[in-house]
Amino acid sequence: MKAAVFVAIVALAGCGGASSTTGRGRSDAQLASGKPTALKSAAGLCKGFGGKSQLQRTLAPRDLVGRMMCNASYRGDLWKALYSDFDEQMFGHFTAALMVVDCVGEGVCAPAGARRSPVAIGALSSYARRIDGTRVMTALNTIDLPAQMRTDFMDRLAASQREIIRLAGTLDPRRKELYVTLPAQVRARRAAARKAMAPLFERAELLTVDVEAALKSRSASAAHVARVRTLRDDFVRACEAGGRPTWECLAGPVARPMTELMVRLAIALRDPVLGHAENTLLEVPADLTRVQAEIFAQQSASMAAERTRWNDFTAAARTGIDPRLLAATTGVKPPVDLGNEAALAITMRPISWRPVIERLERDTPVAWLAGEVASVTRGGDSATVKFRGETPTAGKRQLLPWVRVPSSDVRNVRPGMWLVAVAHATTKVGLVANVREAAPVTSKVLQRRAFSLTTPATLARR
What is the DSSP letter of 75? Predict the structure, then answer.
């Protein structure tokens, strides 16, 4: 949602409302599909909307609605692009309406056809139930559209909602579990966690406003960094206590947005060491701030398990074993063949402020230090880490570059682990970026920044 016009779509709130005579005598499936489009016969009504049939999310709301209503056939998978960036917490009713209408219109949320997707039907059935028609109509009234087009869009939306809900009800029991029940369970867990940690979410909202104001007025300070860090630590601790692994807590709501605020504060304070260290968390391609990301992860795992069971059952069938007998023996329900169905992937691109941070190095040179840890000498609030390496001539172990970091950054670090740190080039004073089990890339990540990923409830606070 980075394009300005796309932000305008999300800002529009908003189903129901007026009715028209264009849908009389047509089924929900016919009306929702938009084929034939009733507006085609209205003289001049579609002028300026029918030139191109491609839908792109960067189009203005007026063009999106107009092209949907005036083109009997269009492509673009607008619904998928909008779904990927949709903020369910804010829930823009107008944006949800566009998804529902588009999915049916493109033949994806359909009873049959080459483009039919049971996954999409399940995903959008939740939105179809939640859309408030009054808010959609309110949004449409702010757009420069013919009144008849607004009314017909509302008719088509209502029909699309009913059609998607009906289709979700016709899914076989296993697909209902995977595509309707599982997402509902994820949303319920997220809602319960948000309720349990409501004070932390409220603190995050207030602190974000405060920090954004400070950044805008160029009055950001080390005190802001401390407040953001404290809130993130508090959230991760509460998240861990709720049974979540640390990496999920760091990638989820509150923690990840706070990390990005830390990076931006570091840039404002012209501190490339802090900026680079915190940026390593953002560069991890695991953004779970939106519920769709968690749904994708869990659906993918469940669908992979279903395919494994399907392969086992079909292999047994080839050897003459009755699938029902196998199910009764193993206690596992007979699986279904999911074919080429796949969970709806969302945009999970890692964020990186590295190019911006690197510009600060002209005034404050930094050094990246990496290697096998030879020793960790702790003393008070700081610790000295020395690295081990091979000398090409003697072949004996030799202590190589060292770095001084906060003691809390290396609370769980031991000799033999592989550590990456970023520090001031001259003083070697810096921060830990990450720690691995052994050699880089190929081994397990044990720690990111000061957060241990392997031992819950051992949050290291700086």
Answer: B
